[in-house]
Amino acid sequence: MSAVIDDHGHAGHDHHHGPAKGLSRWLLTTNHKDIGSMYLWFSFAAFLLGGSMAMVIRAELFQPGLQIVQPEFFNQMTTMHGLIMVFGAVMPAFVGLANWMIPLMIGAPDMALPRVNNFSFWLLPAAFGLLVSTLFMEGGGPNFGWTFYAPLSTTYAPESVTFFIFAIHLMGISSIMGAINVIATILNLRAPGMTLMKMPLFVWTWLITAFLLIAVMPVLAGVVTMMLMDIHFGTSFFSAAGGGDPVLFQHVFWFFGHPEVYIMILPAFGAVSSIIPAFSRKPLFGYTSMVYATGAIAFLSFIVWSHHMFTVGIPLVGELFFMYATMLIAVPTGVKVFNWVSTMWRGSLSFEAPMLFAVAFVILFTIGGFSGLMLAIAPADFQYHDTYFVVAHFHYVLVPGAIFGIFASAYYWLPKWTGHMYDETLAKLHFWMSFVGMNLAFFPMHFVGLAGMPRRIPDYNMMFANFNMVSSVGAFMFGATQLLFLFIVIKCIRGGPAAPAKPWDGAEGLEWSVPSPAPYHTFQTPPDMSEVHEHRKGTGGELTP
Amino acid sequence: MSTELPLRRLVLRLTLVVVAMFGFGFALVPIYDVMCQAFGINGKTAGAYTGAQTADAAREVRVQFLATNAAGMDWEFGPQADQLSVHPGASTEIRFVAYNPTDKPMTAQAIPSVSPAKAAAYFHKTECFCFTQQVLQPGERIEMPVRFIVDRDLPADVRHLTLAYTLFDITPRQPPVATLSATAAKESLQ
Fold first, then answer.
1. Residues of A in contact with B12 (CB under 8 A)
2. What is the SS3 assignment for A352?
3. What number is the ipTM of this complex?
4. How many domains does chain A have?
5. How far is CA B147 from CA A31, A306, B93, in A?
6. What is the pLDDT of residue A273?
7. Is domain B43-189 in CATH 3.30.1490.100, yes or no?
């Protein structure tokens, strides 16, 4: 890994404060760009690991009947796939993007707490080492689903559950420290004159995401601590025998879990809000409404958690409240989609890889949003609950949502990171293979889900056979395509046409004012932003020709 | 740009938020219990009821009794009558019988639940074996009383409610020898 990345620190070597040599550079670094790169590589490794588990799942589901793995192992695969993708792939990828881009976007020399930043990152390999090691333990790894509902995860859990709990604690501490760092950086280190409403939306969405993180990651830490106490110290938080209640687990978990899904998508909203204007060659439509919509989504995410639990027996008033509150989220989300489409309206569009991923993001995330609205209808949810319809829904918001957002960001900023242009032809191939593979994999899941195929089961009725085979073929295609992405990134790091400081003619923002690749130290002297107009205010007039 | 002190204060405040939210996670436990009792979520019933009501002779409600053993519980456990017709406001007693067929002393805890859930808040237990743990010696059999009042304010559309007990084996957690108070409580009930 370091051998590959060493290349893109080149500019730094000539600089008076270049990076240290060898392994200690990566172990001890406090440089936001180094740490950002490590986060991104870590997340990509986790993406491949979690993805290969998805391949096991889809291979088993290729045909009905038990084919390849035992049900016990299948359960471990679904659980670990979810945990690794959520906590190991998506979240660290956004933290990596934040590390790299936020200081560059607000004109700061580094993150506000560089040593905390180093510790946040290095907790992750420890956490995931613990988590993955459980697969090799007697009794196997976590097999209770990524939502680890009690009592499956307490009374009936494998012995290794304690390692799982500590892994969650470690990654929680890592996320919380990362979030505090992001907030401190954004609030304290903005360049003079860079008012909040001049910040790029990626910075705004990350600021709000960071507040979500410090609000809910401690609750997750609390819920796994309760599990730990139930398992080892004789308490009965979730054990009915001792006066506790397993349903309580679901409430506490989803109080964390629902904001968590916005933690995974808001930074993607921000990145796409930079990319679409750049390739439309128009300012973002409705900047201010984007900021308020993000805030509204974040607020609403705290009062909708029980829509994950419509079937546990909530009073009618509760079902109605959570149903309407959930549907309300469609309003700020609709504002965002409207603004992205309006930004493209009559723009001078071009479709380089970042734009392809961004446009696919808008369309496919909206499909995932619509299936979310269907799931929000409490009476209908009794039919959909725990079926593949739910699987289709959250993969539509996470794969073309979060993951495509990350791909779009990677292609958009790769020239800034590496100093080289990536191979556009291969990148477009990557996009189209991902797009087709992903839709083949997840669209049929809507149909088998509506027809009643339950999730997390290694076998299924013959009537679902054809759609499942299509899903598996699509999943294999999507999975294999990601190796192409790895190739494209390595190729881009090792060489390619030199990238100018601003490789995208429509792009805006401070990050394009530094050379490509970005020097090891940037904005030692903060840029003066006081002359720059409040972010695109009053420029909504582009719609009138 | 010189932000040494504000940075320290900001980080301190954010850390306090983190600590507070960790505490909030635990605070959700009592909040949940209060919400459950207030709205009858999960058919949870309150603790011992101390009030008294006069019987509403004009109205009759059917109360069904269910007894279930949790997984791994070997006791024989059941009500003496499957159902009773009661007047709201009247105090009624029903006995449940438990028998330990195993060859070792065991401790059990019964957890009540009322259906429909919205009736849970109107079902008052003045005396219940579920308030204490039960210890039975090998081959021992006991009768355990429940005295309850169905509230006069029970919504008019509820004509029929179910009191269900699930009996859990908590011997590993509360070894029978160590639960003198539970034994005493059982004896006082007999």
1. none
2. coil
3. 0.87
4. 1
5. 70, 35, 4
6. 96
7. no
